[in-house]
Specification:
This protein has helices at 14-23, 61-68, 101-111, 117-123, 145-148, 154-157, and strands at 8-9, 12-13, 28-34, 37-43, 46-48, 51-57, 71-77, 84-96, 129-143. With 163 residues, it is α+β, with helices and mostly antiparallel strands. The chain is globular and about 45 Å long.
């Protein structure tokens, strides 16, 4: 999908959506049809030119499900006030990675680097990663900032709550 910079897609313009997708370190949630029914999976992603790029172990339930059904739905939204985000649909493709480049890129975005225990564990798992690419076919955005401006953020209301 060619996201037009000045066109509105719900609350935001295409340019605002692309900035949100590039800069927000929030995992996307994708919905797929699994063997036992619908499945929602959170995934780290990168946005590039109308595509959401991710990866998962080749032998995962997610990759197996994606191999049987190529249409997915996705949601990338904030978990605290004000609620805002992007949701849509797309066609997915998967291929076996020949290196850890995409996983390393995701680790830099979400963990600020690869020099930590989780990154080391992920990079040293047995078995290859599947490169997941979602070509966006439809999307919209929403932003409740205007109507939620007078509500305190969850972290302020409940500082002892661990999320």
């Amino acid at each position: 999908m060619n996201i037009e910079s000045s066109r509105k897609y719900g609350s935001w313009s295409g340019a605002e959506i692309e900035t949100f997708l590039r800069e927000t370190p929030i995992p996307m949630r994708i919905s797929v049809s699994g063997a036992s029914g619908p499945l929602i999976v959170p995934l780290w992603f990168e946005y590039q030119a109308g595509r959401l790029l991710s990866c998962s172990p080749v032998d995962s339930l997610l990759v197996s499900s994606l191999g049987k059904q190529s249409e997915v739905a996705f949601d990338i939204s904030t978990n605290d006030l004000p609620y805002r985000g992007v949701r849509g649909r797309g066609q997915v493709s998967c291929e076996v990675a020949t290196d850890d480049a995409r996983l390393s890129d995701l680790l830099r975005k979400y963990l600020a680097g690869t020099d930590n225990q989780l990154a080391s564990w992920l990079l040293n798992r047995e078995g290859p990663e599947a490169l997941i690419e979602i070509e966006i076919s439809w999307l919209t955005s929403w932003d409740f900032s205007g109507r939620m401006g007078d509500i305190e953020r969850l972290a302020t209301r409940s500082p002892d709550l661990q999320l």
